[in-house]
Amino acid sequence: MNGRDLQAEVFEHHRPQMRAVAYRMLGSLTEADDAVQEAWLRLSRADGDSVANMGAWLTTVVARIALDMLRARRARREDYMGDWLPEPIVTVERDDGPEEEALMADSVGLALLVVLETLTPAERLAFVLHDMFGVPFDEIGPIVDRSPEAARQLASRARRRVRGAAPPPDPDLHEQRRVVDAFLAAARDGDFEALVAVLDPDVVFRAHRGGLAPEARAGEVVRGSEDVARRVLARGARFAPFARPAVVNGAAGAVVPLAGGRMAVVGFTVARGRILAIDFVFDPQRGPGMPGEGAVSEP
Questions:
Q1: Same domain, 282 and 183
Q2: Contact 285, 262 (CB under 8 A)
Q3: With the C-alpha atoms ordered 132, 121, 265, 262, is the resulting torsion angle positive or negative?
Q4: How much is the pLDDT for 84?
């Protein structure tokens, strides 16, 4: 095996972690894969023999790339009003094969990703690298042009915001599914009281059209169990009969076929037996296994 082949083999070994870092930074698999590809280009131009810890080096490189991408995206969105939702990771069937395991390794709750989007790019990087991947602050500091102590403060501020805004979901996927199924049944039946009963009093409903530039996405946010239940019954109930169970970012969710072979993805955050957040993403791209027959049109 020549040096180039060995370099490629080492890179592929570290690809899952790089992709996971980039996805948590960017909230988009497409952008995460772009960041990983750029990391490969930088490795191919670097002197790999001088790198003592290739895994740490690649993590740092992809984090720098993602940070630059995040800052550029923020600059493009400075005049954009409305909530942004991440690109969801969806699996319709669980087979626990290698592809499934790779997807689930990238999974992090949609509600958490929404909170991460409210952080500054430097706060997000410090939190992601330290709290999610255990990177020490003396390695994080240089990436954000801060001292290790300043990087520690960035992560601390981010941690407080995350804890206050994104409570941990119920870990039992079967319990999550039970709650989501009760929600869908109530929506199908038009049962307002049953909907309110399964929603947390402070539930938040977010909807947007995915796959577009952030500044072009139409966002919608509704808060409170009764207002969300009314929103679901007024405009969302017609989607419920077509909903199919899915795992969305590692949690119980649903997919809904739309006209033209597209799909909507519905992610739920369930905690203490109630739904804390509903994230409804209209995807303009054709979804896998989502035929046009029996589909519904977008509102």
A1: yes
A2: yes
A3: negative
A4: 60
| Token pair listed for 255 | 């997919």
Number of neighbours of residue 96 by Cβ within 10 angstroms: 8
Which residues constitute the domain of residue 245?
173-286
Spatial separation of the C-alpha atoms in residues 168 and 36, rounded to whole Å: 29
Of 143, 168, 193, the one marking the end of a domain is 168
**CA-to-CA distance for 194 and 188, rounded, in angstroms?**
11
Q: Which of 168, 184, 200 is the last residue of a domain?
A: 168
User: What does the pLDDT look like over 177-192, one tens digit per residue?
Assistant: 999 999 999 999 999 9
Q: What CA–CA distance (Å, rounded) separates 228 from 277? A: 10
Look up the CATH number of the domain holding residue 142.
1.10.10.10
Average pLDDT, whole number, for the chain? 83
Helix (H) or strand (E) holding 190: none
Q: How many CB atoms lie within 10 A of CB 118?
A: 14
Length of the chain (residues): 299
| Closest of 150, 166, 155, 149 to residue 132, by C-alpha | 155
**pTM as predicted:** 0.80
What's the rounded Cα separation, in Å, for the pair 134 and 221? 34
For 133-158, the pLDDT digits (tens) are 999 999 999 999 999 999 999 999 99
Read off the CATH number of the domain in which 15 is found. 1.10.1740.10
